[in-house]
Amino acid sequence: MPPKQHIYLVPGFFGFTNLGELLYFGHVRDFLQAEFARRGVEAEVVAILSHPTASIRQRTADLLKAVQETASEDEGPIHFIGHSTGGLDSRLFVSPGASLREGLALELYASRVRSVVTVSTPHAGTPLASFFLGLFGQQLLRLLSLFTVYVLRFGRLPLRVMFRLGHVLARADDQLGWKATLLDQLFDQLLGDFSSDRREAVSRFLGDVGKDTSLIPQLTPEGIDLFNAACSDRPTVRYGSVITQARPPSLRTRLSTGLDPYAQLTHTVYAFFYGQTRNMPLNRIPLHTAEQTAALVQAYGALPHAEACDGIVPTRSQVYGQVIGAVRADHLDAIGHFDQPTHQPPHVDWLISGSGFRRPQFEKLWKDVSGFLLNE
Asked: What residue ranges define each of the domains in the chain, with the CATH number in brackets?
């Protein structure tokens, strides 16, 4: 009988595994479980819990803990699927000679890993991390973390909150005139809509975001340059990547979001992030192999230019190993957070980019990922 496949879903920057019924990887996990069952493959799909903004080293230790707890009873092969920063955690886990801290031995499990799939991962860094290093960026990070949780719970933000956020972002380049208490007030308003148990869970999660932000400087192009110098590939592991490229914010993308004020104001968040992310230094854009370049050209019609991104990570920063899929999508679309409320369970979008990514593209992408994991 073929051994059980162990698939670990590794969340990204400030990504939660679950808060009550809120699931970061809910749609991906459900699809993969059904797809492996359809193929007649015994597989366990586990979404892990990581410190949201702790260092890559700490997050990799979190991954090791999850693997020890769930894969120690057999010798079945292990696969990692890392979204955003989760892809970096996965690469460090399998890097030969990687050291986390005393008493944590990776090799026993790293030697069992057969594949690493990175989804929208900043392998060459992202300029957005540099923005979040500032005081305003740190405050906005906590607020946007809560926004993500709130939208996934309720489907959308209150308009009163969105209008005020839009005002903050519109003035972000000219920070004179706004006060930190405005962000604090928005934060308190959102938490007020949760039950007492949910407020406690969300507060703990957001406390982790505020307590340890050592991940942020590591995600700058300069920080990732050091990471890449120290992190090497394991010869027995197959590396693949899912690439996302969203449309630049424009009148067209604004019109595509419709007349709904909520959608328009959420699009402002996307436009702001896109403006910060597009400033990738030319000397930090990695060179690609002929096969990688061909896959990008086939998917997009041309090699993405230096400013192309998914609103969070530059598109060409995401390429690593075999290009499994390259899609028109924003940073959260590929893991199921897009606008399709009629699907059961519903897909809920909070980064409204006008990408047009929907369930058919989602299913095709994850079928391709499943085939890569099984080396088909």
From this structure: 5-126+222-374 (3.40.50.1820), 129-215 (no CATH)
